[in-house]
Amino acid sequence: MNQLSQAVSGLDRDILAFIEQGTENDQEFNRLALAAFELQYNHVTLYRHYCQRRDITPKDISSWEQIPALPTDVFKDAAFCLLPSETSRTFITSGTSNKKEQGKVSYDEGGLRLMDATIKKAASWMFFPDNIKALILVLAPPPEIAPHMVMVYGMNRLIEYFGLSASRFLIQKSGFDAKALADTLHRSIDEGVPVAICGGSFGFVNFFDYCTSKGLKFDLPQGSRCLDAGGFKGRSREVGREEFLDLCEGVLGVHRDYCVNLLGMTEISSQYYDNTLRNRQRGIAAGRAKVIPPWTRVMAVDPDTLTPLPAGEIGLLRHLDLANRGHICSIQTDDLGRILPGGFDVYGRARDDGSRGCSLSIDEMTRIIGEAK
Amino acid sequence: MKDIELKGYYLPTDFRYPISEFLTRVYRQGDISVRLKTPVVTPDMVNSLLVHLKENRDKFLVRMPVERIVGVLNEASVLWLDRDYVYRRQAIEIIPAITGFSSETIEASIDIEMESSLSDDMWRALHSEMGNPLYLDDFQYSDELGGYRRAFGPGLVVSFFSENIPALPHLLFMRASLVKAACLGKVASGEPAFAALYLKTIEEIDPEMAASMAVLYWQGGNQEVEDAAFSHADAVVAFGAVETCASLSKRIPRNIKTLVHGHRMGFGIIGKNKMTLAGVDELSRAVAYDHAMFDQKACLAPQVYFVETGGEVSPVEFARMVSGAMASYEEKMPRGRLSAGEAAVIHQQRGRYEIREFGGDDVRMFAPSCGTSWTVVYEKAPGLFSPSVLNRFVRIWAVEDIFQALEALRPVGQFLQNAAVAVGDEREAGLIRRLGELGVARITSPGSMPTPSMMWRHDGMATLASLLRWCDVEKKDDITGFKD
User: Fold this and answer.
1) Can you spell out the DSSP letters for B108-155?
2) Residues forming a β-bridge with B377
3) What pLDDT, in 10s, does the model give residues B161-218?
4) Chain B: nearest CA to A190, how far in angstroms?
5) Which residue in A353, A368, B38, B469 has the most C-beta neighbors within 10 A?
6) Contact assignment for B262 to A46 by CB distance below 8 Å
7) What are phi and psi of B333, to 5 degrees?
8) A97 and B CB contact within 8 Å
9) Within chain A, which residues score under 50 in pLDDT?
10) How would DSSP label each residue in A212-267?
């Protein structure tokens, strides 16, 4: 084992222990973040140049907040692997079929172990705080069909850690079979088995629309829950959060506190869950927010200057995720959000604010004009 | 905090309609708060208003000699060019708060628009499009026809304004009144203030002329209101984004003359013989000006400059010089404030260029260390054109041959509008011919991209002549009673 591999596995051991321990410890977080930064700075050449242009080297900084954040889009142009030779899996961002516009994030075995640990820890706190096993039904294709979707990978881990044996993915090559899901839900009601429906938010809305058109309503067994992630992006109608929760209650019979929204991104190994299910379990009354697990930090920065904003002010979200050891810990997103008591909130991508009619792609413009003619 | 309340609409002074409800939108920037009041527009109100505008047009505007109309419009432009003119000062105070543009940009914008809207420009535009402008007043003898001829403008033009150029809406009122048409302007939510102020000017100079003009705001796409407007309109002129124009095009009845100024893009091409040590300093300032004006939001603005290699100065060196010029424009005429999304895409794009540069690609990025105020990137021209993220994001694309630019642009031919060309050798004429074939509607020099003349056939259309209907007298025997 070479020196770098040794250093990486030593760091992984510490980060893994920190994730599994799961307690807030600013000092230890900072130490690990700086250690990861130093390795990434020294061994990821492009990132080192990026930091050097900002006059930042590991020697210059003493706090994780000073670590240069890499914008998410750069994963479309280059790989940022600490151990490129040991890549075991690559995830690709969704949203476009244009290969040049797809971001790619690679993991080595150690990096995957860190991600797995975050999935297990975060879900056990936030989605299964009652420590049950559920019939996990995923509104997504299985890993065999979508090996590069990070959400599919994560859902597969959820099934492994928290799912009853009949848990499964519901989208096959032939598409999504809404009727099969409805039948499964009926069965689970008959058998009294709690269900966890997980998947893209748009998949839920399409299923709700199917149920409405068929006059279907469910009263899922106690302990059933929903986990949705991502936006709609034209794959279903757009639904506001409150309406979404109303539909979960109205169509599925799942109380809104048991409906948890998840923020996950290909560029970030960890996931951020709504606090509602955990708070309800613990009898805590608090506003809905996404919880920042101890091995991550989130801040909102000024969209123009990228300087951190005080809590409560809306800006672009920036993440520092220790589980990103393999591919740069500090990531600048273009998500709009703000820090709240007990976590943060996210309002979708800033670039979707409609301000840029001119940023329509040529294809989109041509299509719109063609339709008008 | 300075609190300014303002009408974001204009109605003729003699229009009596019981407006029951008003909407006030509040814009804040720095220590200025603007409260813009507009009536809540209903189909019934639009019906009454448009009938009224047409009546006033028949009563006043149609009977006015075109010379009087040109005189009024000229006087308005002259007033607006005066830095102390009260409405201009008001516009410069409030429009930045509403649009985010810097006040320096609004000043420059008003100057550009009004300097090209003086009587000489109007006469030349009229001559260029219709031969003899007096055809608008009465039958005139036409040598070509060998008989008498007259032009009639539409009764009413309804125009939809966009928000990207703050002082542009006046142009539509000029065009409509030159052809003696009543005009209702529907302002954009992003820039609702200028048009109403401009019509106040017209009212103060010539209330009879202003009596057939109005400005309103409603949420674009309000079908009932828009259908009411279309039911009275003889012509519709629409400016706007691709989606807006497409949606309007679908709904405007076919029998209405329609001019659509949809999304268009500009670009520049500079040949190696212009990349001289003696010339690039001025040229870099010109290129910077083309990007800085209107913060690159105008359709006229360049999305990319193609620069040929092989000159005395390399494209990358030229990019560096443009970055210096962009920095100095930022001091003279600061870029406006951006939405979070606009700023975010600039940071993301910059990151991508930086990473490609570090990875050894032939790419360079120049930008200030903090903030998004300007960016200059140099790269070898990728195969195909893609849109810029704008807001003073300059792209210099190196080409080995100027004609390569044509290949990159071919797929977007229908969106091309404005090209700055500086070739410096005999290939220029050939390039211009090819650009014309490709779809370009205006060719100019670097540094003149934001300042078309009124004679320019906007988006390739004869904007005045397209509104006209003609009556030709082909009666060969003598007619008495017409003036010669």
Assistant:
1) HHHHHHHHTSSHHHHHHHHHHHHS-GGGGTS-EEETTTTEEEEEE--S
2) B365, B395
3) 988 887 789 999 999 999 999 999 999 988 889 999 999 999 999 999 999 999 999 9
4) 48
5) B38
6) no
7) -145, 80
8) no
9) 355-359
10) HHHT----PPTT-EEEEES--TTSS----HHHHHHHIIIII---GGGEEEEEEETT
**Residue B17 CB-density burial (10 A; 0-12 exposed, 13-18 middle, 19+ buried):** middle
Q: What single-letter DSSP state applies at residue B6?
A: E
Please check whether residue B231 touches A, CB under 8 A: no
Q: Average pLDDT, stretch B209-228?
A: 96
Q: Chain B contacts of A368, Cβ < 8 Å?
A: 242-243, 246
Identify the pLDDT of residue A369. 65
B325 and B396, same domain (yes or no):
yes
Of B249, B349, B387, the CB nearest to A358: B387
Number of structural domains (chain B) is 2
The DSSP 8-state label assigned to residue B306 in this structure reads E
Same domain for B424 and B303: yes
Is B382 in CB contact (< 8 Å) with chain A?
no
Which value does ipTM take for this structure?
A: 0.93
State the Cα–Cα distance between residues A111 and A40, nearest whole angstrom.
13
| Residue A350 contacts B, CB cutoff 8 Å | yes
Interface of A with B in 137-196 (CB under 8 A): none
Q: What is the CA radius of gyration of chain A?
A: 21
Residue A290, SS3?
strand
- In this complex, is the C-beta atom of B247 within 8 Å of any C-beta atom belonging to chain A? yes
Q: How far apart are CA B414 and CA B47, in angstroms?
A: 36
Q: Give the mutation candidate from B162, B291, B358 for the A interface (greatest A CB count, under 10 A).
A: B358
| pTM summary value | 0.92
- Partner B, chain A 280-339, Cβ-Cβ below 8 Å: 303-306, 314-316, 332, 334, 336
**What's the whole-number mean pLDDT along residues B34-59?**
97
Would residue B234 count as lying in a domain?
yes
Task: List the single residue in A73, A353, A361 with the smallest CB-CB distance to B352.
Answer: A73
Position A365 scores a pLDDT of 66
pLDDT at B246: 87
Question: B197 and B337, same structural domain?
Answer: no
Say which range, A346-355, B86-95, B332-341, has the weakest mean pLDDT: A346-355
Per the CB < 8 Å rule, is B351 touching A359? no
Indicate if B396 and B467 belong to the same structural domain: no
Distances (CA, A) of B51 to A151, B48, B220, B228, B236: 59, 5, 22, 11, 16
* Contact of A120 with A157, CB cutoff 8 Å: yes
Residues B26 and B157 in one domain: yes
Question: Kind of pairing, strands B302-308 and B265-270?
Answer: parallel
Residues B159, B238 contacting (CB under 8 angstroms): yes
Q: Is the same domain home to B138 and B37?
A: yes
Amino acid (one-letter) located at A178: A
| A77 in reach of chain B (CB within 8 A) | yes
Mean pLDDT of B96-108: 93
